[in-house]
Write a structure and sequence with these properties.
This protein is mainly α. Helices cover 53% and strands 2% of the residues. The strands form two sheets. It has a two-stranded parallel ribbon.
Length: 324
């Protein structure tokens, strides 16, 4: 009996794969549209509920659109820069930085801006939010808290886009919900551990190469880093203790959840583990919790930043209350 799930053959990265010109439309790009639209709708609801207004300054829909557009532009810039400069091991973009935002390959085939880093998006988006608030004289933490509620729900669509692209899948597993992704690394069936692993997963093999089931880590992330964090932040937002708490909670919550899920997600093969307790460990195996990926390092920094913001703002809030 097959214990793994075959990735649906009818899913393609293109929305209309066999139609000229329309074949350029991809699910991943559409998921970004859904993500931004969802986050905007959540922010607009908070605006209507007066969650953005302070000091008797009313927030118009034009204000919100300007704020959101600024955040998106900086988010995309940050996401692309981190992907090109941190996650690309070829160092191509260090030699040719003008290619970072160039959407064509050397043969002038349209590739889009392939490769985005979530952590880079957080850094870029945060910078955009801060600059907008300073320019328009709005309370930074008040608006950042609102974004902390809106972002996770939109982020869910981003990870669904990764799933529809059949990319960023997890490490091999014998769990019954393991999924066989079409472009995953294949292994020789003559290797003893591969044959044993395939048998546990219920795969029938005789010879040649075998595609082993993987954790559908994109779906783990869509749920825990998206829906779960949205539920937590939205519930806390109703009784927010002080400005900046939700922002810190989002940073710390995302950093913690993503750090754990990274143990199920396969790191970039060309980067491997940045910190390795056991050297030369294949990226598709989880043999030590002390093998740390690039994503986990960035998540740890994000977690520390979130906890620090909560503590610092908590102390400031307590001091301000004592003066009143």
């Amino acid at each position: 009996m097959l214990l793994a799930i075959n990735y649906p053959s009818w899913i393609h990265p293109q929305i209309f794969p066999n139609i000229p010109f329309l074949g350029l439309l991809r699910w991943y790009g559409l998921m970004y549209v859904f993500a931004f639209a969802t986050a905007y709708l959540v922010m607009n609801k908070l605006r209507k509920n007066k969650k953005l207004d302070t000091n008797n300054v009313e927030t118009s829909e034009d204000d919100l659109f300007s704020f959101f557009l600024t955040g998106i532009i900086f988010l995309l810039i940050g996401a692309r820069l981190f992907s090109a400069l941190i996650y690309d091991s070829s160092k191509l973009y260090y030699r040719k930085p003008w290619l970072i935002f160039w959407p064509f390959d050397e043969n002038w085939n349209f590739t889009g801006l392939a490769g985005m880093s979530y952590h880079g998006g957080v850094v870029g988006g945060t910078l955009g939010i801060v600059l907008w608030c300073i320019r328009h004289k709005r309370p930074v933490l008040q608006w950042a808290d609102a974004m902390a509620v809106a972002i996770p729900l939109g982020y869910t669509f981003g990870r669904l886009g990764n799933f529809l692209n059949a990319e960023l899948y997890g490490r091999i597993t014998t769990m019954p919900w393991g999924m066989i992704f079409p472009d995953a690394q294949r292994f020789s069936a003559s290797i003893p551990w591969v044959a044993e692993f395939a048998q546990k997963a219920g795969l029938e093999i005789s010879s040649g190469l075998v595609n082993l089931p993987r954790h559908p880590s994109q779906l783990y992330e869509a749920f825990f880093e998206g829906l779960f964090l949205f539920g937590v932040n939205y519930a806390v937002s109703k009784k927010k203790p002080y400005p900046g708490f939700l922002t810190g909670l989002f940073y710390a919550g995302y950093g913690f959840v993503r750090f754990i899920i990274e143990y199920f997600r396969e790191p970039d093969i060309d980067l491997g583990f940045r910190i390795a307790k056991i050297s030369d460990t294949p990226t598709y195996l989880n043999v030590s919790l002390l093998n740390i990926s690039t994503g986990q390092i960035l998540c740890f920094i994000m977690f520390v930043a979130g906890i620090s913001l909560i503590i610092v703002q908590g102390i400031r809030h307590k001091k301000m209350k004592s003066r009143d």
